Amino acid sequence: MEADTTFEEHMIDTENGTTGKITGKRKRKSPKKKEKSSPGSPTASPKKLKKKKKTKKAKTVAVPEFEKAAAPIARSSQLPIVKPVTSVVSATKEQFVSPTKEQLDLLKSTINTGINFDQYDNIPIEVFPTVFDPISKFADANLGEALQKVIALIGYSKPTPVQKHALPIILGGRDLMASAQTGSGKTAAFLFPIIASLMSNDFRKGTPKVEGWGRDCKAFPLAVVLAPTRELAVQIYDEARKFTTCSRLTPVVVYGGVPYTPQARLVERGVDIVIATPGRLQDMVDRGKVSLSRVQFLCLDEADRMLDMGFEPQIRAIVEGRDMPPVRRTVMFSATFPKEIRKLATDFLAKDYIMLKVGRVGSTTQSIVQRIKAVADNGQKMSLIKAELAELDNDGRCMVFVETKRSAARLGSELRQLGLRVAAIHGDCTQIDREAALRSFRTGKVNVLIGTSVAARGLDIDNVTHVINYDLPDGIDDYVHRIGRTGRAGNTGLATAFFSLSTDRNLAKPLLKILKESAQEVPDWLMREATKPRMKGPSRGRGGGGRGKWGGRKGGGGGKNGRPGGMSMKGGRRGGGGGGGGGRRRN
User: What is the C-alpha to C-alpha distance for residues 128 and 182, in angstroms, rounded to an integer?
Assistant: First the structure.
């Protein structure tokens, strides 16, 4: 009884302290408080308070008012607004996230390994210096629960040779320059250790992914992956989405040829791994939309191609001319690393980097059957390609490579007139058209894709059974990349090349070497062409002298690859054109 009396007195004092004494005028302003339910003055006797407590109104007013006042205090003491620092660390460290149904469908859309996948174990491997032992299964790499779950959902049974060696090297904190077969799993070889390291380490140390607001918002990625083409960047992004399905990491892809603003809005939401082409990433860094000050990993996929295509100024501006920290892990992957590119690439790697070389496409495996056919002119090429495409299965897909944009457009038009389902991609196509063509080819809406060297690097498309080199490239390395679009992940494939006896003689000797190393059939005419003296490098033919009354003293410039040259600058209308000469062909 004394506790009840004290409780009633406490309620009375609290109410009087906040509202004062209740008068008649006060009762009219607050209709909820009636005279019978009001406690009265502080000098009220305990006996009267006990009677009011027994009434129904006293219970409904006194007890609920106490609970309403105490409830917010209890909630704020149990759930503080500011969480401890440990919550920030746990958010950046590995957290397993169950994938949704759409994400599971995405994981199942991975190319299955072929019947010759086990033959990869016989590929010769060179590692210098040898510091880390290769792994035999993904569990040996300690990739974490989330990534191991993704690997199991995708169906990867065992790592490929490049993955066996690259994973322990990158996870061990060393820089890497790797040359591996096209289609041997290079993308997973650098994405797996990057994702595993970001999930298991607190690189941000409590700092947010983005800072600022609105147009002043700036993103701070932890990993940067550079690719030479838009198509390859999108493909790497698709793989990164799969591999980060069971984690909270956010990959974003940015590339040129499309509006800047939509990609900037995606970056403003936060990014952990940015996959980009060099030009667009440099633009975003210069505009203040992306900061590279917290980058821990830098990867250059198809590194030789980027440097060879003239991206060296952009790459140096991103790596050396901006705020990227010099202490980081840098990896370079490509199917080829010429000596000149290898010397230049050492500027981006640490002095103790490791060199990894895993075989060579078309030289150590027989999964790609290569056929070389001699042609005399374009008319014979057209006859041969019609015969080749007539043998294509309904479920199969064929990629046809040409050297110029005009050739891609002309060949595509002629094949469509024959009733074939054809799409073409080249430098003059808009990004929307290029993405639409690739999407149609991936889904099987079209089964023939014509492209220039834009489509030669890195594209990983399922069920490409045949690759046709309608025009051979200038270098053997490009040929290696082209035929690597088929026979991927151990699947068998067919590669056919049309060898022009007038313009492709420089490729005879390197082609012969590749065919012999891969135990392919070598035609007799190719052996004869390989023994002939090679033409000099990319030089133009000497111009022919002008003829006729108004002929100039100097002939026109020589054409490239046997094509007619231009008119003489000093010659009249009857002046002769220059003679054709050997040289590099451009897209």
Answer: 21
Contacts of 419 (CB under 8 A, 6+ apart): none
Phi/psi at 232 (nearest 5 deg)?
Answer: -70, -35
Which helix (H) or strand (E) element contains residue 234?
helix 230-243
Task: Summarize pLDDT for 115-135 with one digit per residue, the tens.
Answer: 455 656 667 788 989 889 999
Residue of 57, 66, 336 lying closest to 186 (CA atoms) = 336
What are the CA-CA distances from residue 173 to residues 205, 219, 270, 354, 564 (Å)?
19, 25, 26, 11, 56
DSSP tag of 455: G
| pLDDT, tens digit, 9 for 90 and up, residues 153-195 | 888 888 988 899 999 999 999 999 988 766 678 899 999 999 9
Residue 385, helix vs strand vs coil: helix
DSSP element (H, E) containing 102: helix 101-107
Q: Cα–Cα distance between 277 and 274 in angstroms, integer?
A: 10
Helix (H, G, I), strand (E, B) or coil at 187: helix
Q: What are the angstrom distances between the C-alpha of 82 and each of 92, 105, 154, 209, 213?
A: 17, 38, 39, 18, 21
Q: How is the beta sheet containing 273-276 ordered, strand by strand?
A: 125-128, 354-358, 176-180, 329-334, 297-301, 223-226, 273-276, 251-254
Under 8 Å between Cβ of 282 and 318: yes
